[in-house]
Design brief:
- The protein is α+β, with helices and mostly antiparallel strands.
- It has two domains: 66 residues, Arc Repressor Mutant, subunit A (Orthogonal Bundle); 201 residues, GAF domain (Beta-Lactamase).
- It contains eleven helices and eight strands.
- The protein has a six-stranded antiparallel beta sheet with strand order 5-4-3-8-7-6, with helices on both faces.
- Strand 1 and strand 2 form a beta hairpin.
- It is elongated, with a radius of gyration of 22 Å.
């Protein structure tokens, strides 16, 4: 599910530009590491040399040293961040660690009560980044993995989080060109905004059937903080799974994790609004959610 990134640079960027090369090895190593924008980025030697404006021979020598020290790894598809770099990224992501720790018991409870696969994810630019996955025998049929990614606009997890952002922020995050994973994937911003409006009307519950993978269906709700979504929880089944029945469980789990991580949410009388950044709206109470679920399936999908 991971998308492979590459850095596009001008064809003449490798030519002499008159700029002086960084004098120290540390600066040159930093230039090279900065060229890798994320854990899915793959770059060839030529791309690294062009992106950093280093001579090819210099870039090759430093790349070899970084590979030996595990800062980078060398694969058949090019260079990528190595185990040391990835560990530093994980250590620095304290927020994700807190989210995983607080959500773990809720994820386990959802899995036991429903028998479905459970996901925990965060929004990373235009993608969802899977932090956790729990499930039984059906888990192997769900093509996701911890650390993997998927387009936010094609997943219930992503739409659940995007629904609590402003239209401007959503446009900036997902971009103008929405790739289609299946024939049911939302392919334009106008349709995406209509779907996000419907999700807000359901108190934050997001559904998708066959939008990311043809035979997979999901229901998700966002874990929210004072300033917006900080993650999302989903239940996953096959395309015919009766997800409407278990949707209140997902909403309740997300609400509990939200309150545990942001206790001030429960104490707010009037939600804080940040114009042009985050849409704040109270989630439905369990009683209201129950009445909403009783409306029927016709207008949900």
């Amino acid at each position: 599910m991971s998308a492979v990134e590459s850095v596009e640079v001008p064809q003449d960027a490798g030519q002499k530009s008159g700029r002086e090369l960084p004098p120290s090895m540390v600066e040159r190593m930093t230039l090279i590491l900065d060229a890798f924008r994320g854990p899915t980025t793959r770059l060839t030697l030529e791309q690294v040399a062009r992106a950093t404006h280093l001579p090819r021979s210099t870039a090759h020598r430093i790349l070899d040293q970084l590979v030996k020290l595990s800062w980078l790894e060398h694969t058949a598809f090019g260079y990528a961040l190595g185990s040391r770099s990835l560990k530093l990224g994980d250590a620095g992501d304290r927020g994700s660690s807190d989210l995983r720790a607080e959500a773990a018991p809720m994820l386990h409870d959802l899995m036991v009560r429903t028998g479905l696969v459970v996901h925990l994810a965060v929004l990373d630019e235009g993608q969802v980044h899977y932090l956790d996955k729990m499930g039984g025998r059906f888990a192997g049929a769900v093509p996701s993995r911890v650390g993997g990614r998927a387009p936010a606009h094609s997943t219930a997890l992503g739409k659940a989080m995007l629904a609590w952002l402003s239209a401007e922020a959503t446009d900036e995050i997902v971009g103008e060109a929405l790739d289609r994973s299946t024939r049911r994937t939302i392919g334009d911003l106008s349709t995406l905004h209509q779907e996000l409006h419907r999700i807000r009307g359901r108190g934050g519950l997001a559904f998708e059937r066959g939008e990311c993978f043809a035979n997979i269906a999901c229901v998700a709700a966002a874990v929210r903080g004072v300033d917006g979504p900080i993650g999302a929880i989903s239940l996953v089944g096959d395309a015919k799974a009766p997800l409407e029945r278990v949707a209140p469980l997902v909403a309740a789990a997300a609400r509990e994790v939200s309150r545990a991580l942001s206790p001030e949410l429960a104490q707010q009388v009037r939600p804080r609004r940040r114009p042009h950044t985050v849409i704040q709206q109270e989630t439905f109470s369990p009683e209201t959610m129950g009445r909403l679920m009783a409306v029927g399936r016709g207008g949900w999908m």
